[in-house]
Amino acid sequence: MTRLFLAAATLCGLTWLMSGQAFPQPAAELRLELNRLEPRENAACRVWFVLNNRSTEALDPVRLDLVIFGRDGVVARRIAVDVGPLPSGRTQARIFDVSGLACEGIGQLLLNDLLACGSTETSQRNACMDRVSLASRVEAVPFEK
Fold first, then answer.
1. Among 35, 48, 57, 137, which has the highest number of CB atoms less than 10 A from its own CB?
2. What is the pTM of this model?
3. Which has the closest alpha carbon to 136: 54, 44, 69, 86?
4. For residue 111, which of 133, 127, 92 has the smallest C-alpha distance?
5. What domains, with CATH codes, occur in the chain?
6. What is the pLDDT of residues 104-125, one digit of tens each?
7. What is the pLDDT at residue 66?
8. Are the beta carbons of 140 and 107 closer than 8 angstroms?
9. pLDDT one-digit tens code per residue, 31-58
10. SS3 of 105, please?
11. What's the pLDDT at 32?
């Protein structure tokens, strides 16, 4: 009976691999959402993020390397944004202003890199980047990595 069970389990695993589907991945521990773009005076844009740290540890510092593309797909700006600390199991909003760039001209945000994620060490930043999920509630402005 044990051999039959092992053979069936192996066959199911091989069938799954051959189907081209990946094994289920754990849920992302750090969710970053582009929530809103708010026009400001003098062609500035206020960017609202909602961040959810689902991990069991607080993250401090957290710094994002963002690239902002115009509606034409051309890079308009590259900025570093400090959004930490992020307590464990909490959802928080963060805002920052981008001067000299109107919200209507923003076509996409790219999370180019994490400059810090609980640490500035490369291995920690890379591991954190693998656990990040991104979303955008701003119509026609994707937030990608």
1. 35
2. 0.80
3. 69
4. 133
5. 26-144 (2.60.40.1840)
6. 999 999 999 999 999 999 999 9
7. 98
8. yes
9. 999 999 999 999 999 999 999 999 999 9
10. helix
11. 98
| Amino acid type, 59 | L
Mean pLDDT of the chain: 87
Q: How far is CA 52 from CA 20, 74, 101, 129, in A?
A: 31, 30, 27, 14
Alpha carbons within 13 A on the beta-carbon side of 39: 7
Q: Is 3 exposed, middle or buried (0-12, 13-18, 19+ CB in 10 A)?
A: exposed
Q: Which of 95, 114, 112, 87 is nearest to 34 (CA)?
A: 95
Residue 1: pLDDT band (50, 70, 90) is: low
Q: Which residue has the tokens 């799954």?
A: 16
d(CA 111, CA 129): 9
Residue 61 has pLDDT above 90, yes or no: yes
Taken in order 28, 130, 127, 73, the sign of the CA dihedral is: negative
Residue whose tokens read 């402005």? 141
pLDDT at 8: 47
Residue 137, CA atoms < 13 Å, CB-side half-sphere: 12
